[in-house]
Amino acid sequence: MSLPATPSPRPVAASPEPGSPVVSLARALAIGAVAGLLVGWFAGRVYGFEATPARLLDHMLKGTLYGLALSATEHVLGSWLRAIVPLRSGRAVAIHVAAQVTAALAAFSAVTLILVRVAGIELPFAVLAFIALLAVSITAVSNSVHSLAALHQRIQESERSAAEAELRALRAQINPHFLFNSLNSIASLIRTRPPEAEAVTENLADLFRYSLRASTLPTVSLADEVESVEIYLAIEQARFRERLAISIVVPEELLRAQVPSLVLQPLVENAVKHGVQQTLDCCRVELRAERDGEHVRVEVSDTGPGFASTDLETALDGGTGLRNVRGRLRHAFGETAALRILPRGVEIRFPLQPAGDKAGTGGASAAPFGITKGPRAPGR
Fold it and tell me: Which of 135, 171, 180, 327 has the fewest C-beta atoms lying within 10 Å of its C-beta?
């Protein structure tokens, strides 16, 4: 079994961020132009001005000047405030909004002074009051939206970090009982069946090697997952001998389907624990995969006593293995994947995603598994 090296991230073309100067300038021009039109309409309604194209253009230019001044003030002050007062609480948001509104009034006064004293433009008091109200309102709303966007982004980053940490923890889980039992099997076989002890040791090394490599990949091919299950069952068969029979049925067309890494072994471990260990007779563990429209359905079952209940939440409360599987499926496919408890097994269902050129897959190592296969023979 061979897995590709962890892919390097592809370079992505840089694009302006929502809070970048370029976006802020474009937003200021648009808001200023719209505000100028509103002021022109307001002045025409109050003073009976005719809304000629030249008059509207004049108001648009004045509005753009106000918009640029307010945007520059908001950008500079906002960057400074975010550096010393991070947006991590409601109090911080209130400080930002109050400071930005005050700065907006100052910028409004400065631009008005320039227009009246330097350019000699006369602006009626009602128009000035309307501009001031509009400027403060736009600034307050803009800053509030920016604050909410920043908080939303921080929450998303926190949730993403928590999800990634949880996924790493799920992937890193190793059943200590399985390792202990495997070492016991090797110890008991060393004197009586040295070739078989060597095969179990090699299989155990292969399984851990696969676990380490696959844990760094978001998805692998179904072929790789099935091969890891074969190795696991070969190790368990050295322990249970004739009490464990194995059947694996996987259509060749599904071998390259992508599945979350290390998602099948917990299901097979569950079958061994609740099936083989609970009976002294021969117990058959079966892994069967089939296509279901645009999804893949994988069922792992056994001929043991079965579950006491097919209620999913009850089964999830019984251990970490099934919760582990559901967590990986949700992280990879969201609500399009499902886990279902059967009377004598577990079924998972997930979207069919062939490997293709998708980064981080193990599809290249797909092997042509047969219709029904047994475990790896000793010495393989």
Answer: 180
